[in-house]
Protein backbone atom coordinates (compact mmCIF):
# COMPACT_ATOMS: atom_id res chain seq x y z
CA UNK A 1 0.00 0.00 0.00
CA UNK A 2 1.30 3.44 -0.82
CA UNK A 3 0.01 6.75 0.43
CA UNK A 4 0.73 9.82 -1.64
CA UNK A 5 -0.27 13.38 -0.90
CA UNK A 6 0.41 16.84 -2.20
CA UNK A 7 -0.77 20.44 -1.95
CA UNK A 8 -1.14 23.12 -4.57
CA UNK A 9 -2.17 26.79 -4.52
CA UNK A 10 -4.22 28.39 -7.28
CA UNK A 11 -3.96 32.17 -7.48
CA UNK A 12 -7.69 32.55 -7.94
CA UNK A 13 -10.59 32.76 -5.51
CA UNK A 14 -12.36 29.58 -4.49
CA UNK A 15 -15.53 30.16 -6.56
CA UNK A 16 -13.48 30.59 -9.74
CA UNK A 17 -11.50 27.42 -9.10
CA UNK A 18 -14.46 25.21 -8.35
CA UNK A 19 -16.46 26.46 -11.35
CA UNK A 20 -13.46 25.32 -13.40
CA UNK A 21 -13.19 22.04 -11.47
CA UNK A 22 -16.84 21.26 -12.30
CA UNK A 23 -16.06 21.79 -16.01
CA UNK A 24 -12.62 20.23 -15.96
CA UNK A 25 -13.07 17.89 -18.94
CA UNK A 26 -12.24 18.05 -21.77
CA UNK A 27 -8.89 19.75 -21.53
CA UNK A 28 -5.61 19.30 -23.39
CA UNK A 29 -3.71 18.05 -20.33
CA UNK A 30 -5.93 15.03 -19.72
CA UNK A 31 -6.51 13.52 -23.15
CA UNK A 32 -6.98 10.08 -21.63
CA UNK A 33 -10.33 11.06 -20.13
CA UNK A 34 -12.71 10.23 -22.96
CA UNK A 35 -16.11 10.21 -21.29
CA UNK A 36 -17.74 11.84 -18.28
CA UNK A 37 -21.32 11.31 -17.12
CA UNK A 38 -23.33 12.42 -14.13
CA UNK A 39 -25.01 9.41 -12.52
CA UNK A 40 -26.86 11.34 -9.88
CA UNK A 41 -26.88 14.76 -8.35
CA UNK A 42 -28.83 16.47 -5.60
CA UNK A 43 -28.79 18.64 -2.52
CA UNK A 44 -28.60 17.17 0.96
CA UNK A 45 -30.47 18.55 3.96
CA UNK A 46 -27.59 20.94 4.69
CA UNK A 47 -27.69 22.52 1.23
CA UNK A 48 -24.54 20.81 -0.02
CA UNK A 49 -24.48 19.62 -3.63
CA UNK A 50 -23.59 15.95 -4.10
CA UNK A 51 -22.66 14.64 -7.53
CA UNK A 52 -21.88 11.08 -8.51
CA UNK A 53 -20.01 10.83 -11.80
CA UNK A 54 -18.61 8.12 -14.00
CA UNK A 55 -15.41 8.80 -15.89
CA UNK A 56 -14.04 6.62 -18.64
CA UNK A 57 -10.36 6.72 -19.46
CA UNK A 58 -8.53 5.31 -22.44
CA UNK A 59 -4.90 4.44 -21.82
CA UNK A 60 -4.17 2.70 -25.12
CA UNK A 61 -2.91 -0.37 -23.26
CA UNK A 62 -1.26 -2.78 -25.67
CA UNK A 63 -3.04 -6.09 -26.16
CA UNK A 64 -0.40 -8.05 -24.25
CA UNK A 65 -0.85 -5.85 -21.16
CA UNK A 66 -4.59 -6.29 -21.40
CA UNK A 67 -4.10 -10.04 -21.62
CA UNK A 68 -1.98 -10.01 -18.45
CA UNK A 69 -4.56 -7.92 -16.64
CA UNK A 70 -7.26 -10.24 -17.90
CA UNK A 71 -9.41 -7.60 -19.50
CA UNK A 72 -10.93 -7.22 -22.94
CA UNK A 73 -11.98 -3.66 -22.31
CA UNK A 74 -9.73 -0.89 -23.57
CA UNK A 75 -11.33 1.67 -21.27
CA UNK A 76 -11.07 1.84 -17.51
CA UNK A 77 -13.79 3.39 -15.41
CA UNK A 78 -13.66 5.56 -12.32
CA UNK A 79 -16.52 6.62 -10.10
CA UNK A 80 -16.34 9.98 -8.38
CA UNK A 81 -18.38 11.50 -5.57
CA UNK A 82 -18.10 15.25 -5.04
CA UNK A 83 -19.59 17.49 -2.37
CA UNK A 84 -19.76 21.27 -2.74
CA UNK A 85 -20.50 23.23 0.43
CA UNK A 86 -21.09 26.85 -0.58
CA UNK A 87 -21.45 28.05 3.04
CA UNK A 88 -18.19 26.54 4.32
CA UNK A 89 -16.50 27.01 0.92
CA UNK A 90 -15.30 23.48 0.59
CA UNK A 91 -15.34 21.19 -2.41
CA UNK A 92 -14.36 17.61 -1.81
CA UNK A 93 -13.96 14.92 -4.45
CA UNK A 94 -13.40 11.22 -3.79
CA UNK A 95 -12.76 8.81 -6.60
CA UNK A 96 -11.93 5.16 -7.04
CA UNK A 97 -11.47 2.84 -10.01
CA UNK A 98 -14.29 0.38 -10.59
CA UNK A 99 -12.51 -1.69 -13.23
CA UNK A 100 -9.16 -3.53 -12.94
CA UNK A 101 -10.05 -3.86 -9.25
CA UNK A 102 -8.52 -7.34 -9.07
CA UNK A 103 -5.20 -5.79 -9.92
CA UNK A 104 -5.10 -2.31 -8.43
CA UNK A 105 -7.10 0.13 -6.41
CA UNK A 106 -6.47 3.85 -6.52
CA UNK A 107 -8.53 5.85 -4.06
CA UNK A 108 -8.07 9.56 -4.44
CA UNK A 109 -9.36 12.48 -2.42
CA UNK A 110 -9.18 16.17 -3.36
CA UNK A 111 -10.19 19.10 -1.20
CA UNK A 112 -10.45 22.68 -2.51
CA UNK A 113 -10.72 25.47 0.09
CA UNK A 114 -9.85 29.16 0.33
CA UNK A 115 -6.33 29.42 1.71
CA UNK A 116 -6.58 29.96 5.48
CA UNK A 117 -3.97 32.76 5.34
CA UNK A 118 -5.18 34.42 2.14
CA UNK A 119 -8.84 34.03 1.19
CA UNK A 120 -8.18 35.43 -2.30
CA UNK A 121 -6.40 32.24 -3.30
CA UNK A 122 -7.36 28.58 -3.17
CA UNK A 123 -5.53 25.63 -1.69
CA UNK A 124 -5.95 22.12 -3.06
CA UNK A 125 -4.92 19.19 -0.90
CA UNK A 126 -4.80 15.93 -2.73
CA UNK A 127 -4.08 12.44 -1.50
CA UNK A 128 -4.23 8.93 -2.82
CA UNK A 129 -3.98 5.43 -1.47
CA UNK A 130 -2.64 3.00 -4.01
CA UNK A 131 -2.80 -0.73 -3.49
CA UNK A 132 -1.55 -3.28 -6.00
CA UNK A 133 -3.01 -6.68 -5.18
CA UNK A 134 -1.55 -10.13 -5.18
CA UNK A 135 1.56 -9.29 -7.15
CA UNK A 136 5.07 -9.82 -5.76
CA UNK A 137 6.36 -6.59 -7.24
CA UNK A 138 3.57 -4.68 -5.51
CA UNK A 139 5.69 -2.14 -3.67
CA UNK A 140 7.68 -1.38 -6.82
CA UNK A 141 4.50 -0.96 -8.87
CA UNK A 142 2.92 1.13 -6.16
CA UNK A 143 5.95 3.42 -6.19
CA UNK A 144 5.66 3.72 -9.94
CA UNK A 145 1.97 4.59 -9.65
CA UNK A 146 2.72 7.24 -7.04
CA UNK A 147 5.25 8.86 -9.37
CA UNK A 148 2.71 8.72 -12.18
CA UNK A 149 0.17 10.38 -9.91
CA UNK A 150 2.55 13.24 -9.15
CA UNK A 151 2.95 13.87 -12.87
CA UNK A 152 -0.80 13.60 -13.38
CA UNK A 153 -1.51 15.92 -10.48
CA UNK A 154 0.60 18.59 -12.16
CA UNK A 155 -1.42 18.08 -15.35
CA UNK A 156 -4.61 18.37 -13.33
CA UNK A 157 -3.54 21.74 -11.85
CA UNK A 158 -2.57 22.97 -15.34
CA UNK A 159 -5.96 21.80 -16.61
CA UNK A 160 -7.81 23.87 -14.00
CA UNK A 161 -5.70 26.94 -14.81
CA UNK A 162 -6.37 26.39 -18.54
CA UNK A 163 -10.14 26.20 -17.96
CA UNK A 164 -10.05 29.37 -15.84
CA UNK A 165 -8.00 31.29 -18.41
CA UNK A 166 -10.19 30.15 -21.30
CA UNK A 167 -13.31 31.28 -19.48
CA UNK A 168 -11.72 34.68 -18.80
CA UNK A 169 -10.76 34.99 -22.48
CA UNK A 170 -14.36 34.23 -23.50
CA UNK A 171 -15.67 36.87 -21.12
CA UNK A 172 -13.30 39.64 -22.22
CA UNK A 173 -13.97 39.03 -25.91
CA UNK A 174 -17.73 39.58 -25.48
CA UNK B 1 -16.70 16.04 -23.72
CA UNK B 2 -18.47 12.90 -24.76
CA UNK B 3 -20.79 10.77 -22.75
CA UNK B 4 -19.81 7.22 -21.87
CA UNK B 5 -22.76 6.26 -24.09
CA UNK B 6 -21.99 7.77 -27.48
CA UNK B 7 -25.64 8.36 -28.33
CA UNK B 8 -26.13 10.32 -25.11
CA UNK B 9 -23.59 13.03 -25.90
CA UNK B 10 -26.11 15.64 -27.16
CA UNK B 11 -28.36 15.10 -24.14
CA UNK B 12 -25.31 15.38 -21.92
CA UNK B 13 -24.28 18.68 -23.50
CA UNK B 14 -27.76 20.14 -23.00
CA UNK B 15 -27.76 19.09 -19.38
CA UNK B 16 -24.18 20.28 -18.73
CA UNK B 17 -24.97 23.73 -20.12
CA UNK B 18 -28.04 24.02 -17.93
CA UNK B 19 -26.21 22.75 -14.87
CA UNK B 20 -23.10 24.94 -15.29
CA UNK B 21 -25.28 28.02 -15.59
CA UNK B 22 -27.33 27.10 -12.51
CA UNK B 23 -24.21 26.19 -10.54
CA UNK B 24 -22.38 29.48 -11.25
CA UNK B 25 -25.31 31.91 -11.22
CA UNK B 26 -27.61 30.43 -8.59
CA UNK B 27 -26.12 27.77 -6.39
CA UNK B 28 -22.79 29.48 -5.63
CA UNK B 29 -24.57 32.78 -5.01
CA UNK B 30 -26.85 31.27 -2.39
CA UNK B 31 -29.94 31.33 -4.58
CA UNK B 32 -32.02 28.29 -3.62
CA UNK B 33 -34.74 28.72 -6.23
CA UNK B 34 -36.05 25.78 -8.24
CA UNK B 35 -33.49 23.70 -10.17
CA UNK B 36 -34.33 24.36 -13.85
CA UNK B 37 -32.48 21.29 -15.10
CA UNK B 38 -34.67 18.46 -13.76
CA UNK B 39 -36.32 17.61 -17.07
CA UNK B 40 -33.08 17.74 -19.08
CA UNK B 41 -31.43 15.60 -16.44
CA UNK B 42 -34.16 12.97 -16.57
CA UNK B 43 -33.85 12.56 -20.34
CA UNK B 44 -30.07 12.41 -20.13
CA UNK B 45 -30.19 9.88 -17.27
CA UNK B 46 -32.48 7.46 -19.10
CA UNK B 47 -29.95 7.36 -21.91
CA UNK B 48 -26.91 6.95 -19.64
CA UNK B 49 -28.43 4.18 -17.53
CA UNK B 50 -29.19 2.24 -20.72
CA UNK B 51 -25.62 2.70 -21.98
CA UNK B 52 -24.18 1.55 -18.64
CA UNK B 53 -26.24 -1.65 -18.76
CA UNK B 54 -25.30 -2.30 -22.38
CA UNK B 55 -21.60 -1.83 -21.68
CA UNK B 56 -21.81 -3.77 -18.45
CA UNK B 57 -20.04 -1.05 -16.46
CA UNK B 58 -19.93 -2.05 -12.78
CA UNK B 59 -21.40 1.06 -11.15
CA UNK B 60 -23.32 -0.91 -8.53
CA UNK B 61 -22.54 0.28 -5.08
CA UNK B 62 -22.83 3.93 -6.03
CA UNK B 63 -25.29 5.26 -3.46
CA UNK B 64 -27.85 7.44 -5.17
CA UNK B 65 -28.18 10.53 -3.02
CA UNK B 66 -30.40 13.51 -3.16
CA UNK B 67 -33.63 13.79 -1.22
CA UNK B 68 -34.84 16.23 -3.90
CA UNK B 69 -34.44 13.81 -6.78
CA UNK B 70 -36.63 10.87 -7.74
CA UNK B 71 -34.85 7.54 -7.65
CA UNK B 72 -34.15 6.38 -11.23
CA UNK B 73 -36.30 3.46 -12.34
CA UNK B 74 -34.24 0.28 -12.52
What does this entry look like structurally?
The complex is a heterodimer of chains A (174) and B (74). Chain A contains three helices and seven strands, in the order E-H-E-E-H-E-E-E-E-H. In chain A, helix 1 (14-22) crosses helix 3. The radius of gyration of chain A is 17 Å and the shape is globular. The longest helix of chain A has 36 residues, at 138-173. With 174 residues, chain A is of the alpha+beta class. Chain A starts with a strand and ends with a helix. Chain A has a seven-stranded antiparallel sheet. Chain B is 47% helix and 0% strand. Chain B has helices at 9-25, 38-55. The chains are: A alpha+beta (174), B mainly alpha (74). The A-B interface holds A 15, 18-19, 22-23, 25-26, 33-45, 47, 49-50, 52, 54, 56, 77, 79, 81, 84, 86, 98-99 and B 1-5, 8, 12, 15-16, 19-20, 23-24, 27-28, 30, 32, 41, 44, 48, 52, 57-59, 62-69, 72. Chain B: Belongs to the TRIAP1/MDM35 family. Chain B: InterPro entries: MDM35_apoptosis. Chain B: It comes from Solea senegalensis (Senegalese sole).
**How far from one another are the termini of chain B?**
26 Å
Work out the number of β strands of chain B.
0
Main beta-sheet strand count, sense and barrel state of chain A: 7 strands, antiparallel
DSSP strand content of chain A: 35-45%
Beta-strand segment tally of chain A: 7
Average pLDDT metric of chain A? 88
* Proportion of helical residues of chain A: 25-40%
Strand order of the largest sheet of chain A: 1-7-6-5-4-3-2
Shape designation of chain A? globular
| Alpha-beta classification of chain A | alpha+beta
Instruction: Name the poorly predicted regions of chain B.
Output: 62-74
Q: How large is the count of helical segments of chain A? A: 3
Biggest sheet overview of chain B: none
**Global morphology of chain B:** elongated
What level of helicity do the residues of chain B show? 40-55%
Beta strand % of chain B: under 5%
- Rg for CA atoms of chain B: 14 Å
Distance between the termini of chain A: 50 Å
Order of helices and strands of chain B: HH
Protein name (chain A): PRELI/MSF1 domain-containing protein
Pfam family, one (chain A): PRELI
Domain PRELI/MSF1 (chain A): 1-172
InterPro entries (chain A): PRELI/MSF1_dom (IPR006797), Slowmo/Ups (IPR037365)
